[in-house]
């Protein structure tokens, strides 16, 4: 009986994790001049025992190397694999190809990824949106940034994030904050419409070249 309860609890937590991680918009970006690597995003996922840092759980910033976002049906093992492959020197598109080919649960169609790497001052990026992520979902990736989202109001949210990021002067932190503000629309993450807000948790993280992964500049 005890083992049955434990098994049921584990299955319930896995299902809950998948559902609660399904609603997110985010951006990863690199400043090729300063070498700063940034990660920002928001979600209708709030802080909980499963997600003690809310939406930040999807963010992996590796100073001097790159940044990875794993979202939609978030899975810790996929995120760890992506981290390991980046540390091995794989470029963003190859990391995503490997994530799709070797999904930890054999179902990459429910995942969404955004990856950038510094590449010696010549940034590269890649994005992936599984066909079974919840609508509206899409992504866009260009050289030094990748933007992605799911369960969104529409393409206008991603377009606004991109426009604010590209047209805001200042530091990488300034531009990433502006990108998040571009999605500050009630129901941007449609699940948050009932809360009369765009999201329930958000994050902005910047790593400088000399930072340690667990001690970022911002």
Q: Strand percentage, roughly? A: 25-35%
Main beta sheet strand tally, sense and closure: 5 strands, antiparallel
Q: Tell me the strand order in the biggest sheet.
A: 7-8-1-2-9
Quick one: how many beta strands?
A: 9
Taking all Cα atoms into account, the compactness measure Rg is 17 Å
**N- to C-terminal separation?**
48 Å
Q: Which of globular, elongated, flat, extended, rod-shaped describes the shape?
A: globular
Mean pLDDT across the residues is: 88
Number of helices: 5
Helix/sheet category: alpha+beta
**Helix amount:** 25-40%
Order of helices and strands: HEEEEHHEEEEHHE
Assembly category = single chain
Low-confidence stretches: 1-22
Quick rundown:
With 218 residues, this protein is of the alpha+beta class. It has helices at residues 2-20, 76-87, 92-101, 155-167, 172-181; strands at 24-30, 37-43, 59-62, 66-72, 111-117, 124-129, 138-142, 145-150, 201-207.
Write up this protein.
The protein has 218 residues and is α+β, with helices and mostly antiparallel strands. The protein has five helices and nine strands; from the N terminus they run αββββααββββααβ. The protein has helices at residues 2-20, 76-87, 92-101, 155-167, 172-181, and strands at residues 24-30, 37-43, 59-62, 66-72, 111-117, 124-129, 138-142, 145-150, 201-207. It has a five-stranded antiparallel beta sheet, with helices on one face. Strands 3-4-5-6 form a four-stranded antiparallel beta sheet, with helices on one face. Strand 7 (138-142) and strand 8 form a beta hairpin. Helix 2 runs antiparallel to helix 3 (92-101) and helix 4 (155-167) packs antiparallel against helix 5 (172-181). It is globular, with a radius of gyration of 17 Å.
